[in-house]
Amino acid sequence: MDATAESTQWKKCGENVRLAREAAGISVRELARRINVSASHVSQVERGLASFSVPALYNVASELGISMDSLFEDPTSPQGNQTFELEQRAADGEVSLEDSGIVLRQGARPALELTKGPTWERLTTRPENGSEFIEVIYRPAEGNSNPPSDLVRHKGREFGLVIEGELSVQVGMGFTVLKPGDSIAFDCSLPHRFWNATEQQVRAVWFISELAVSGSSSETKDFEYFHTY
Description:
It is a single chain. With 229 residues, the chain is α+β, with helices and mostly antiparallel strands. Among the domains are: 3-72, Orthogonal Bundle (434 Repressor (Amino-terminal Domain)), CATH 1.10.260.40; 130-209, Jelly Rolls (Sandwich), CATH 2.60.120.10. Helices cover 27% and strands 22% of the residues. The chain has six helices and nine strands. It has helices at residues 3-24, 28-35, 39-46, 54-64, 84-91, 97-100; strands spanning 111-113, 119-122, 131-138, 157-164, 167-171, 174-178, 183-187, 192-195, 202-209. A six-stranded antiparallel β-sheet has the order 1-2-3-9-4-7. Strands 6-5-8 form a three-stranded antiparallel β-sheet, with no helix packed on it. The two termini are 18 Å apart.
């Protein structure tokens, strides 16, 4: 993603954060306190002059009661969640598969490039209820192969497939490296983190379902809702 595209995406994201914050009746200072960043940083993000880290962005979504998917939307013309009615119109031949949201072309993917982190590209035309489907591009380590500082937990179940490069993965005390074609699936209540420790780009596809849980481990606990992809 070039600098112009990145700036445009963060202007959209920042405006969505501002609209959601105001709708929730929360001040800039209060939101900053809740997500543990400065009020000036929140203000800069809302104006498209700065960006959030991965943990901060997920914490913002959690505090404001919005989905991560909604932050990719154009605030001047939000599309809303995907619906069966739209898909039925395509099935009936009334609209194209693209216009209905069933098909998303690669060049039209909504994207966000995160502060000191990966680039997310949403793989759905519109937000999906209770799930996220994204491709994550991890930058080369450039000499810094250390993992993110925090292991994180949240509700749901997570599925991933590495399609390029080698991705370091930690789930609880377990550690491994996923290579192209390797996949992973686990309950998100388990502490986890992912990072690129190599000098080559890594690409992986992720699906996160808040509706799918294994057993009762993630049904009764409150978790911080963010990933460190």
